[in-house]
Amino acid sequence: MNYEQLAERLLPGEYPDLASFETRYPPRDLPKGAQVTRLAPSPTGFIHLGNLFVAIANERIAHQSGGKLFLRIEDTDLKRKVDGAVEAVIAALDYFDIRFDEGAEIGGDDTYAPWYQRQRAEIYRAYVKDLIRRGRAYPCFCTEEELAALRDEQVANKEITGYYGKYAKCRNLTEEEIYKNLEAGKPFVIRLKSMGDSSRKFTFHDEIKGDVTVTENDQDVVILKSDGIPTYHFAHAVDDHLMRTTLVIRGEEWLASLPIHLELFDVLGFARPKYGHNCSLMKMDGESKRKLSKRKDPELSLSFYRQEGYHPFAVKVYMLTLLNSDFEEWHMKYPEKPLEEFRFRIEKMSRSGALFDLDKLNDISKTELSRLSAEEMLAFLKDWAFSFGSEREQAYFADEEYLLKVLNLCMGTSGKKRRKDFVTAKQAVAEIGYFFGDRVQKDAYRVDDGTRNAILDAFLAKYEYADDAQAWFAKVKEVAAGLGYAAEMRDYKANPEVYKGSVSDVAEVLRIAVTGRANSPDLWTIMQILGDERARARLSEART
Known about the structure:
single chain, Rossmann fold, 3-stranded parallel beta sheet, mainly alpha
């Protein structure tokens, strides 16, 4: 067969010499040992926790080694493209402080641009044309119906599905048959002519999983679709070579495609990059584990964390806890150190599924929020409120001096006495609502209506806004004693049968009346922040 003639017929016209691409995209001038990594999402509009998981690993490995991290958009499948998806990807990763050095809509060094695969179509076609010339690629005229029938036959025969061996019907077409199909105007794709043998296995060193045994690829995969755009398999091999990627960290679902990718690198004459297949994110479902699901688990989407108001630092801390087995101990020892100072090691990444636990994230979030100053917390809550909160919640920020008093109380003093009541911005904004006229009855009274009214009436008769904390609590004790409650906790503990309850029961009634909650920060301070008029109104309104 005249492969030169066939290549010209299938991909007519002049294409750049392949050697010119090596000049156009030269090796990067980086220190020895520097790693070049990438994130390469499809513009589907959905960016998930797994993307962040991989992005953090790639960012840490690249920058810690003095290398580069770039963003490539793999938009070869127009059916999946969603308008605004690229901007959404960048915004989501920027929120979690993933810093790219270059890439789509990023800027930076454009030596290795363009960063959208559809803009690199000429490059891919030049390499495909060369493979056709060398007899390592061929046209396939099979229709969708024929491929579906082929698959049905394989399933019925309990054979591996795909286009290989005796099922690769167009692989051995004669020159006459090929040109007859072309003259008839039959649409075609270009397939790789694989030289692999599925009966042979080989060992590959995975940077995360260690040595893994895989089967040689024997699939004649599509490398160029009928519209002249490559498939992901082919485009990523060309791009990772020309963009000088040295290390590909990706999800373990791609491990099955590894033999295809290795054969593509080999047939193209490219040095293989190193591959590391990251473990899947799992969650407990009853007594068993399963992968996080887009359909079942809202926490898989990165938008969930933004909308719920998780602090990006807290999420990143948790991701690093899952990524490197010794990070948690380091962060507990050095909580004030920047995360960049942690020595991220690929050998410390888990080889099996990482168990994602939202309760664990919530605990970490409480701790990290407790370390913020009141000013930092205000800025964080404000950003969330004006992105996702209601108009009523946004109004909380009209008087920031007042809000700072609230936050200083709710967060407590510095050091070991810091409160850990806040988990997310959404929860925190709801939690402080009672300071802004939005008292919500969250907890029920544990006394009957008559007792509640008696406590409220007795306290209102004594209450003075000017009282300091000591005088205020003395009056609470007086009310307690007058209504048959123990004014001192030690007396109640010594003889509980003598009293209706203790002073803490009286204080709880006042607390629920003012805040709607049985537990809150210091009630005297809350009433001082609310002011005399509002505090009295709350106590009066709580009567029945």
